[in-house]
Design brief:
Helix content is 75%, strand content 8%. The chain contains 23 helices and 8 strands. Among the domains are: 35 residues; 188 residues, Heat Shock Protein 90. It starts with a helix and ends with a strand. The chain is α+β, with helices and mostly antiparallel strands and 643 residues long. A hairpin with a 2-residue loop joins strand 4 and strand 5. The strands form 2 sheets. Strands 2-4-5-7-6 form a 5-stranded mixed beta sheet, covered by helices on one side.
Length: 643
């Protein structure tokens, strides 16, 4: 890495910390207010504000007003004012190139701020302490002491992040980026500088231009000249909108290097000269030494050795005065080369010896710092790793929390939906049961009406004694009907008993007009059930519409069986058949409308809804040799058990 570029970058540390838009109008206004201020603490604050505004215009005035603030603070025992005064003195000392004094002032400021922090940990005090640490980092940076610079910047960064002072955070990020740049860790340097640039852009910070200059300098050093010029031009536009002379002086140096690389000597000289004039105006010997060196080097390349000599001599004088070893090393080497070119071997040798001495000092200093730097880097990487792991755990916790919340919500929704479905099914079942009961209420009067009609006919035809026997069977049948018709199911054996009584009554009524048989297979279990009064209407139809109209006697069979998990109920008669029965009904004046089939179909639909299984009815007209020989009704019901 070029030592010259290191010097450029090191300068940036101080600048990025400073505020460069002080105006004479503000200073005059504060001075007028000062004449009317009677309270000491208010006067101290006014002195410090004036000192801070003067630092970019006249560093000597900064020292003057800062000293007034310090003296009055000591007299009034105002610790905060004293700490601020030390910071202002330190900043003025940096600009004037007096780094040892600057360090002393910043260390004194840290001591005073820490006294206040013990009693008052407010934002203003923490900001002051952070500023003292950051300014110390600036001095160590310009002295090439990267280890102490990094430590001070880290302390400042912690404080600024705690109080959420984003503008200052961006400046520290910028400075840490430059530390990494000086270590040739360019990816890390760009990472920090671009973070700083992002914050500065969001805040509209003036120092955004300096950060852009830093980024451009890294691209230039890594031979990405096009990218470098892009960032330099962006910085130049921003500098045109503010009065940041120090920043623009730095940019001019960078542009001089760029055009020198592009072999545009005139533009390179123009920008180096602009940079020198600005630094001399600001009394900044550090920047001026660098600009003088650059101009001398440009003239050396053009073999204008006599013209280059005064620039090189002045560059060395400034470098020695401010104690910057890197610039001393470069200036001594340049002077040795110039004297050699001018055939002055004695002077060339003397400066060469000084160059070697400076080089050895830098090597020794660098070697001693490498071990400490390695330790600092290790600790820094360790901190970063711990922070990364902590962030990773926090992200994982957040992700798992969100997933857990989503799963919980999903579970609640599923449970709620199931409850709703269950509720709907329950309501549906209850509705179906009420409909079933309503149909029972329709069926019972219908059945009783038919039975009473039969009893009336029986009394007329058979006399009182036979009627009593009929009534006995009827009462038994009614008792069974009333006992089981209230429930949704009746045991099969009770259904068979009811059918037996009913058929016996009808047989008596119609003078043994038919025979009947009721059968149940072994597959029918005792605790199976079926809806009450479901079979009786079909048996009644078999008698009235099948057997009675037939000439001669007939037979009715009722059969119960189980097939494929279905209860099969079959009612068969050998009567006149469906077609003939229908024809007789149409021609009969006294025919009544039968409700049995319609009610039964509705009951089967309800049964399907409750059990979620099919319930079917099939009516078949029996034939033999093209002759109607009866009717068969088949009911296929889901198997249900009575608990």
């Amino acid at each position: 890495m070029s030592q010259k570029l290191r010097l450029i970058i090191f300068f940036l540390f101080f600048f990025t910390w400073q505020i460069s838009n002080a105006q004479n109008v503000q200073i005059d206004s504060l001075k007028r207010v000062l004449h009317y201020t009677k309270i000491d603490t208010s006067k101290i604050n006014q002195y410090n504000k004036i000192a801070n505004l003067y630092k970019e215009i006249n560093p000597d005035s900064t020292l003057f007003f800062a000293q007034k603030a310090a003296s009055l603070s000591l007299k009034s025992d105002f610790t905060f004012g004293l700490a601020e005064a030390y910071v202002n003195k330190g900043n003025a000392s940096i600009i004037l190139g007096n780094y040892p004094n600057a360090l002393q002032y910043f260390k004194k400021a840290q001591i005073e701020f820490k006294k206040i922090v013990e009693e008052d940990s407010g934002k203003k005090v923490k900001s002051g302490l952070a500023r003292a640490y950051a300014s110390s980092g600036v001095v160590y940076s310009e002295q090439s002491n990267q280890i102490l610079a990094l430590k001070n910047y880290e302390e400042a960064l912690k404080l600024y992040q705690k109080i959420d002072e984003q503008a200052s955070v961006s400046k520290i990020l910028n400075n840490i980026g430059i530390i990494y740049k000086s270590q040739q860790n360019y990816p890390k340097a760009l990472e920090y500088l671009k973070k700083a640039s992002k914050i500065q852009t969001a805040l509209g910070e003036q120092n955004a231009a300096v950060t852009l200059t830093n980024i451009g300098a890294i691209y230039f050093e890594t031979k990405q000249n096009k990218n470098a010029l892009i960032y330099y031009e962006k910085a130049k536009k921003l500098f045109e909108t503010n009065d940041n002379k120090r920043g623009f002086a730095l940019l001019c140096n960078c542009l001089g290097d760029y055009y020198k690389k592009e072999n545009d000597i005139n533009l390179a000289n123009e920008y180096y000269t602009k940079s020198l004039n600005l630094y001399e105006e600001l009394q900044n010997k550090f920047g001026a030494s660098l600009s003088l060196y650059n101009i001398a080097g440009l003239l050396q390349n053009q073999k204008k050795y006599n013209d280059a000599m005064p620039f090189a001599v002045k560059s060395l004088a400034y470098a020695k005065e401010i104690g910057v070893l890197d610039q001393t090393y470069h200036s001594e080497k340049l002077l040795s080369e110039l004297y050699e070119a001018l055939n002055d071997p004695k002077a060339a040798l003397e400066h060469y010896k000084n160059y070697v001495q400076a080089r050895d000092s830098i090597i020794n200093e660098t070697t001693s710092q490498k071990f400490a730097l390695a330790e600092v880097n290790y600790e820094y990487r360790k901190k970063e790793a711990l922070l990364s792991e902590k962030n990773k755990r926090q992200i994982q916790f957040i992700i798992f929390s969100i997933l857990g919340a989503l799963l919980l919500i999903a579970l609640i929704l599923v449970i709620y939906n199931r409850m709703q479905v269950k509720r709907q099914l329950t309501l549906k079942k209850e509705v179906a049961e009420y409909e079933q009961k309503a149909l029972h209420l329709q069926m019972n009067p219908h059945f009783v009406f038919n039975c009473l009609s039969s009893i009336s006919s029986f009394i007329v035809q058979n006399g009182t004694d036979s009627a009593l026997k009929y009534l006995s069977k009827f009462s038994k049948l009614m008792r069974l009907t009333l006992e089981y018709s209230k429930g949704s199911l009746i045991p099969i054996d009770k259904e068979i008993e009811s059918l037996q009584n009913y058929l016996e009554l009808e047989k008596l009524r119609f003078h043994d007009k038919f025979e009947f048989e009721i059968k149940s297979s072994e597959r029918v279990e005792f605790n199976m059930g079926l809806p009450p009064l479901l079979i009786q209407p079909f048996v009644e139809n078999a008698i009235l519409h099948g057997i009675v109209p037939k000439e001669g006697t007939g037979k009715i069979e009722v059969d119960f069986d189980v097939e494929n998990e279905k209860l099969i109920c079959t009612i068969t008669d050998d009567g006149i058949g469906l077609s003939e029965s229908k024809h007789l009904k149409e021609n009969s004046v006294t025919a009544h409308k039968s409700m049995a089939l319609g009610i039964t179909k509705k009951r089967l639909e309800i049964m399907e809804s409750i059990t979620s299984k099919s319930a079917q009815i099939e009516i078949i007209e029996l034939q033999s040799e093209n002759k109607k020989t009866g009717t068969k009704v088949v009911l296929r019901l889901p198997v249900q058990y009575i608990s």
